[in-house]
Write the structure tokens for this entry.
Amino acid sequence: MNGYDLRTMGSPKPRVFSGIQPSGGLHLGNYLGAIRNWVRDQDKYDNIFCVVDLHAMTLPWDPKLLRENTLQVAAVYLACGIRQDTSTIFVQSRIPAHSELAWILTCLTPMGWLERMTQFKEKSAGEQRERVGTGLLTYPALMAADILLYETNFVPVGEDQRQHIEYTRDIAQRVNQRFGQVLTLPEALIPKAGARIMGLDDPERKMSKTLAQANPGHAVFLTDPPEVIRKKFARAQTDAEPAVRFPPGPGVANLLQIYQSVTETTAENLERTFAGKSYNELKQAVAEAVIAALRPIQERYREIRSDDAQLVRDLDRAADRLAVTANATLARVQRVTGLLGHD
């Protein structure tokens, strides 16, 4: 299966939809907390992985960087091991149905729902209201459209993103209650246990592309060369103790979490390896483990990016296939909401 309508193709697999903004490079937290799980589980589901470029426009953007980052995210998906025979990777803006359904959902969404969204409150904090783009407020409707267009069953998210899925379910239920059963209600697919990677400069805050824009040492990106990775770990925040102790403080705990995640070693072996070691030894070991884990990804990434024209053709073909399902969902919503030409 590769992006076809489950209802017509009879796939026994539940459909999964997920997307990442091309607002910067993908970092180690994205990989260990999400993408690696997608790769491992991709045979269980009918997978749709989207590069949500329209979402990247909710904050000021550079057009050239947006194009480059879009290709980078798509290439990283593939380089990490997402296979095109079991999954579909496409670019959001190539299917206009996303924007069209988002407008209908926006019109049906109470302002209070949007103003309570955590990301809007966080990203607009400290800004004068006149300077905050409307898209930052209304983007949940676009996110809901992304999910609902494809009759999605599950959306893999972290616990901190559950609010997005709750909104999507709420707006889908509102549509169904008012106009009939036209939309599938998705469920959050939250892993029972997963790596939560924190910033190297601040182990109290989750690793983030946004925070890395202000401080490049905050995050290790999947395309960082080895010498850059070593420098970032060398400057990583540790703890007040003179050497590694168990249980560790937050700085050392984050480094140990990264090492354990990339090497997939046991907690017992982790303690045997690092108890009493200096922070420099720990940082060097973590850096080398990350470099080794990223080496095949980076090699595959360079191979894919050596032919951007082919990458774009593949993305466009995927969008053409998915547009059949997206347009069918949009037409159903347009018809029941009274828009002309959809009888």
